[in-house]
Amino acid sequence: MAQELAAVIDATMSSEMESIKKKQLFTFAMKGQWERVIEMYEEDPRAHKSRITRSGDTALHIAVSEGKDEVVAEMVRSIMTNQDQLHIKEALQTQNNRRNTALHLAAEMGHSTICEKIATVEPSLLACRNSDGETPLFSAARFGRKPSFLFLHYIQNRNLPDGFFPPYYVNCRRNDGDTILHCAISGDYFDLAFQIIHLYEDLVTSVNEDGLSPLHLLAAKPSSFRSGSRLGRLEGIIYHCLYVEKLKEAEPRQFHTDKHKDDQAKCPPNYRVLWDIVKVFKSAVTTAVGNCQSQANTKRQKNHHAAASAGGTPKDIEKAKNHHTDASAGGPEVRDHGRGLFPDNYRTCFNLVKFFYVALMIILGQGSSRLNKIRRKKEKNTWSVQIMNELLVRASDYEYEDNGSKPDSPIPEELSSLALELSTSTKDRDAKDGNKRKKETPILIAAKNGVTEIIKEIIRLFPVAIYDENEEKKNIVLLAVEKRQPHVYKLFLENNFFKESLFRQVDNEGNSALHLAAKRGHHAPWRVSGAALQMQWEIKWYEFVKTSMPPHFFAHYNKSYKTPKEIFTETHSDLVQSGGEWLTKTSESCSVVATLVATVAFTSSTAVPGGLEEATGLPVLREESAFDLFTISSLVALCFSIMATIMFLSILTSRYQEFDFNRDLPRKLILGMSSLFMSIASMLVSFCAGHFFVLKAGFQKAALPIYLLTSFPVTLFALAQFPLYFDLLKTTLKKVPQRSYKATPVIEHDPETKDKKNEEAQKLK
């Protein structure tokens, strides 16, 4: 009995001591006292596997998260001093609550040096999975850590014999069926996706449990392509001036080294702007010098060629030919400046434009961030097209038409049972749910999102894809009309070959393109402010589709015996009401200002500065030039303010019929706001001209800056209304509405079904 009691006491004391050491280890790690942590690792092997945080992290997890390379190396060395190989393996494989090992964290944070220290000690960590079924290689791909990914790829494949099937089925797919290529494309890590395509070509045609291939995901990212990017005029010039290197396949030495570092990363953040200016200026000067050298080389090779042709030896002639070939190739320096779409002599101009643009951004307080943003956009647009080409070139007709009914696994069944577990068939799950849906092909997804690059390339490689339909029997034209994508619709309008077959199509409910143009969806596609302008562009889109094709191309009635006009009226009733309310509020606020301006203008127009002469009744200051300016501006302010008031009152008394939003109401609003702006400007001019006579002679020279300063608060109202005014002009003058850049999900869920699922989830809770 005494022995048992002593054993219990010893166990209790041991547990208490272990708890105390855990607290000490946690305190040292949180305070950054890593020397003490390493000492505890060397003294007590139990500290190697101690989970010291609420999330279950060990001290090694924390050191990896903070990027402490040297500390991690010392901690791994301390673990390896233990001669028990099982202990070393268990210590490095210790997982937190999400079942992430230290190698998972190093991979997802991009610490390639730490990955090298841990993975070389215990390569079996590459097969460890977290709660989502992700290996360290997958974590590196999910967060776009290219150096870490290449190194882990090298570690897991370096010991494989020639001809052996690479075991990427173990490390490149997680529980939901997504592969590393899915995650790289979803995260816009196109440089990493390019390497994955060349290292794991079979993943190009793999699909996840939702039946989506990498091409499906790429087609659902319109912002990654030039056709889905919005750029201003100045930004567009800079965009075309920038040259982006195309992606290249990584060399084997890059799989296990991380020596490359950007020179800019060595600079402190506050010196980045100066560094960018130096690089741009250096590029411009180097280009100018390179052009001079290029011209000199060209002249020199012509002289050599002429001399050799005149009477040189065969050796001289061959030397001249070689020199001519080198010069035409440009040589190392000339080729570097001659890349792109433009000649060398234009490169200097482009670099000067970039230099002045960066200088302007510095003056505006934005530094080079805008230039870097444009450069990143250009890289994304260029690389996305390159990824698209790589995916399509490696896809056969059968693979392109795969609707994703089963997540494919290119691995032979006899190689791994784990591959079969991760490739769970969605066909069985859909049979249980009784709701099997046909997945849309990439060209249909691209049509919904307005990605014309993918549409053109798919049609070029797979012409039969133009007749693809979704489960609702909608083809690319119907989807482009439904999702309000004018660029895609106009693309097929210009192609007469497909006109008859595409535009006659109706969906399973008998809706033609005009029916879908009349139907308002659940999303707001147009990038304009105000419900009235939204309604105006809805009408313009309907009218554009209606007038773009002959009437006999569209069905007059669908299966519900409704015409497009009836559908338009039913689906836009809420927008008509909200547009009328928006116009009412806008007109009321503007009419108040117009009335105030009219009152002030009338008072000022009747008051004569300096008074009248008693004998003649003429103004005393009629000979002054400022007096003429006062009388004319006050009259203009009165006339335009009255006109603005009349226009706003006419809007308030309108019927707000649906097609009134197309021309009648917007024109009245434009005329009213234009008159209001003119009346405000004229009122300020008349005030300044009348006040000019009050100033003393000494202050009259400084009258202009004084009036500009005092008039600034009043002009804030007009400046605040300018965005709305420009939107009005844009929507009224454009015949075709501006396209939407909002991405449409790859898998769209019915709102009613989604609400039912939410209700069921609430009941279960």
From TrEMBL:
PROSITE patterns: ANK_REPEAT. InterPro entries: Ankyrin_rpt, Ankyrin_rpt-contain_sf, PGG_dom. Coiled coil: none annotated. Residues 293-337, 744-765 are annotated as: Disordered. It is found in: Cell membrane. The chain crosses the membrane at residues 629-649, 669-694, 706-726. The keyword DNA-binding does not apply. ANK repeats lie at residues 55-91. It comes from the Eukaryota. Residues 315-326, 747-765 have a biased composition (Basic and acidic residues). Keywords: ANK repeat, Membrane, Transmembrane, Transmembrane helix. One of its GO terms (cellular component) is plasma membrane. It is a peripheral membrane protein. Residues 581-693 form the PGG domain. This is PGG domain-containing protein. It comes from Acacia crassicarpa (northern wattle). The lineage of its organism: Eukaryota, Viridiplantae, Streptophyta, Embryophyta, Tracheophyta.
